Amino acid sequence: MVKEYTHYINGEHVAGKSGRFQDVFNPSTGEVSAKTPLATTAEVEEAIAAAQAAFPEWSATSIVQRSRIMTRFTQLLYEKQPELAELVSREHGKVIEDAMGSVLRGIEVAEFACGIPHLQKGEFSDNASREIDIFSMRKPLGVVAGITPFNFPAMIPLWMACMAMVTGNTVVLKPSEKDPGCPMRLAELWVEAGGPKGVLNVVNGDKEAVDCLLTDERIKAVSFVGSTAIAKYVYATATAHGKRCQAMGGAKNHMLIMPDADLENVANALMGAAYGSAGERCMAISVGVCVGDEVADRLVEMLKPRVEALKIGPSLERDLEMGPLVTAEHRQKVMNYIQMGVEEGAELVVDGRGFSVPGHDNGFFLGGSLFDRVKPDMKSYKDEIFGPVLQLVRVQSFEEGMALASDHEYGNGTSIFTHNGAAARTYADKVEVGMVGINVPIPVPLAFHSFGGWKQSAFGDHNQFGMEAVRFYTKVKTITSRWPSSIIETDFSIPTLK
Ligand code: NAD
């Protein structure tokens, strides 16, 4: 029997009523493992109403109590980390050790959120004017929506939900319809940890559900992570309806490899950063920019045998390096880009097409692919491929390499590998990209910093998690207060400080 997912509204599982479903696959076998109900507008409105009803009590709950509930939630997440990772691995296809790590990166945000009594403090100016104090506080917004992509079904829902809830908001989460198992479990765990019902609701769905969240006037803010085309649409629609919106989009992350870099370190870093999670990471390195032909020649020599020997198999097996892609459709899209690269004249050093795992012939597997001599005017360079494909570009100078990353329409992450401190510092300072690694291939900041790209990789002006999320999920109220010890005189001019 194929499992049928539900929605999770006001702490209860609610069966989908639309009669529309999306298949969830086990990408390692190609079999349909579950069906996701696609909510109607009326079903999303039910979830919004539950969140709206829970808001007055939750926002009035003391900040210390909210922090304690978040602490219990965090403890439960740690306990359930293996179970959550298995759900991620089973539906997304990333190998189990990688899935464990991705869950942990979400738990780290829950941990950070436990410090909310300190983080959400306002400001106070004593005697700002004579006998007048000014103070400000950060108030929750109300009901907020989270809309998440398929590639991190634990981490990204946790980024959004933990920070939104702990600041006093209630949440309607709309996870990817491709792998909703883990986000559904997170909402159950919230209630098991003592979180009030209605504070975290999950509706499953597609465009119809998203459109309702973007336009319903009870939703005060929308946090979105996904592809750039949808991010732009979400940002334009949500803001046109008067909402706060942060919308993170796609990526094409470059690693600049200087002639003085330790190429063994570079090869080790590139293998994990390009092929880990089958390249389905918004912070994957998909372009290696080699400064000088000698660097490129040596790197190709080092990478070729390693890409050919990648350990690929069913995601729940141990000690593998790569699992399958999420769906057959996505695998086809990646294969089309490989073909495009060949037709555009890039040199395909390793071709991952035609790869299969014995006994798992219907799994959505693809081997690793490596391109050399990719040129910046090729469409396969300009577009995000989002698969296990690494493209090497040859440049003759640091400046030419930095310009590639800066001029690319995406600006999520980038890294530089070098022994030259001045080059590293200049790169970090000048490159037009939101997150930079120095001898670190995937510079995803920890929970006490924040995550966000530039250019076509992010729309809106607050990053995910860290203090940026406290700001995104709260609005400032400022109070000017006087307890007069003498008569207040009439003043017809604008009040000025005395
Ligand atoms: P996607 O844009 O297809 O889907 C993201 C969400 O939008 C899903 O919940 C989906 O149901 C919804 N959606 C899809 N089509 C829609 C439509 N027409 N109207 C309204 N909503 C719609 O993205 P995906 O394929 O799930 O995820 C992969 C993409 O996400 C990649 O481009 C990747 O780079 C990006 N990503 C970005 C970041 C980041 O922080 N910048 C992080 C992770 C993933």
Protein model, in words:
By secondary structure, the chain is an alpha/beta fold. It is 39% helix and 23% strand. It is built from 16 helices and 23 strands. The chain has helices at residues 41-60, 63-79, 81-92, 96-113, 116-119, 155-166, 181-192, 207-215, 228-240, 263-275, 293-308, 328-343, 379-382, 398-407, 421-430, 466-472; strands at 3-4, 7-9, 12-14, 21-26, 31-37, 123-129, 132-140, 143-147, 170-174, 200-202, 219-225, 244-248, 253-257, 285-291, 347-350, 369-372, 389-395, 410-411, 413-417, 435-438, 454-455, 458-459, 474-482. The strands form six sheets. The protein has a seven-stranded mixed β-sheet with strand order 15-16-17-14-13-19-20, sandwiched between helices. A six-stranded mixed β-sheet has the order 10-9-8-11-12-22, sandwiched between helices. The radius of gyration is 24 Å and the shape is globular. The model has no long low-confidence stretch (mean pLDDT 97). Nicotinamide-adenine-dinucleotide binds next to helix 8. Residues 15-479 form the Aldehyde dehydrogenase domain.
